[in-house]
C-alpha cells in the first residue's frame, strides 16, 4: 500500500522522531533499566500533530477505513496497557508500543518485502519484535549446552549461571530461591509459571541492578550467593531493544512473519 505524499510525509516525520527516541531509550534501558516518560516528550511533540493530520485526512477520504483502523488502534493500545498493568510488559515497553500504535498506524514507506495485506504497522512491529526476541533464548540454550550447564529445560533457554561473587556486575534477575537450612544451602529454580504468577501478583523479583545499587538491603542474599558459588540469572536484554529492532525491520523490511508465511505457502 503506497500512501500519497500528503499522508506519507507526516508519517515519515513521526517515524523518524519515534525511531530516534527508541534507539535512545534502548541505550538508557540497557544501562539503567529505566526509561523516564520525559524521554518521549520531543518525539510526541512531533508525532502527535502528524498523527492527527493523518487521521483527519483518512476520515475525510474514507471514514469506514479510518474507523476500522481506529478500532484496531484502540484494541492494540488496550492490549498493551493491560499487559503493562499485569507486569507482563515493562512500563517503558508498553508505553513505547502504545505510542507507536497511536502515532504510526500505517506503513510510512513501502518496505523492501512490501506491505502485508493488513497494512497495520504496529502489528508488524510487535510480531517482528517477538520473532527477534526468540533468537536470544535459542542462543542462550546453545551456550548452556556447550558449557555443560545443568538446569530445568526452560531455564536453559532463559538464563545462565554467573559467579555469585560478581552477580552485582551482571544484568538480569535471580532465577533461584536460595536459603540456608541447618548449615547447608537449599536452592530451587523458580519456574516460568511461578515467575509469571509472581509478576501478576506484583511480587518483586531480585534484580542484579538492585543488588548493585542497594547492597545494604540485600546483605543476606549477597552472602548466600557468595556461598552458592554460581547462581542462575535471566538474560538481561530489555524488551525495548527487540521493540526497536522490530520497529526498524518493519519500517525497512516489512512484516517478517508475513514474509515467512508467504515463503512457506509457496513451497
UniProtKB/TrEMBL annotation:
<dbReference type="InterPro" id="IPR052218">
    <property type="entry name" value="Preflagellin_Peptidase"/>
</dbReference>
<feature type="domain" description="Preflagellin peptidase C-terminal">
    <location>
        <begin position="153"/>
        <end position="256"/>
    </location>
</feature>
<dbReference type="Pfam" id="PF01478">
    <property type="entry name" value="Peptidase_A24"/>
</dbReference>
<feature type="transmembrane region" description="Helical">
    <location>
        <begin position="95"/>
        <end position="114"/>
    </location>
</feature>
<feature type="domain" description="Prepilin type IV endopeptidase peptidase">
    <location>
        <begin position="19"/>
        <end position="131"/>
    </location>
</feature>
<dbReference type="InterPro" id="IPR000045">
    <property type="entry name" value="Prepilin_IV_endopep_pep"/>
</dbReference>
<feature type="transmembrane region" description="Helical">
    <location>
        <begin position="6"/>
        <end position="28"/>
    </location>
</feature>
<dbReference type="Pfam" id="PF06847">
    <property type="entry name" value="Arc_PepC_II"/>
</dbReference>
<dbReference type="GO" id="GO:0004190">
    <property type="term" value="F:aspartic-type endopeptidase activity"/>
</dbReference>
<feature type="transmembrane region" description="Helical">
    <location>
        <begin position="66"/>
        <end position="83"/>
    </location>
</feature>
<keyword id="KW-0812">Transmembrane</keyword>
<keyword id="KW-1133">Transmembrane helix</keyword>
<feature type="transmembrane region" description="Helical">
    <location>
        <begin position="120"/>
        <end position="142"/>
    </location>
</feature>
<keyword id="KW-1003">Cell membrane</keyword>
<keyword id="KW-0472">Membrane</keyword>
<protein>
    <submittedName>
        <fullName>Peptidase A24</fullName>
    </submittedName>
</protein>
<feature type="transmembrane region" description="Helical">
    <location>
        <begin position="40"/>
        <end position="60"/>
    </location>
</feature>
<feature type="transmembrane region" description="Helical">
    <location>
        <begin position="232"/>
        <end position="265"/>
    </location>
</feature>
<dbReference type="InterPro" id="IPR009655">
    <property type="entry name" value="Preflagellin_peptidase_C"/>
</dbReference>
<dbReference type="GO" id="GO:0005886">
    <property type="term" value="C:plasma membrane"/>
</dbReference>
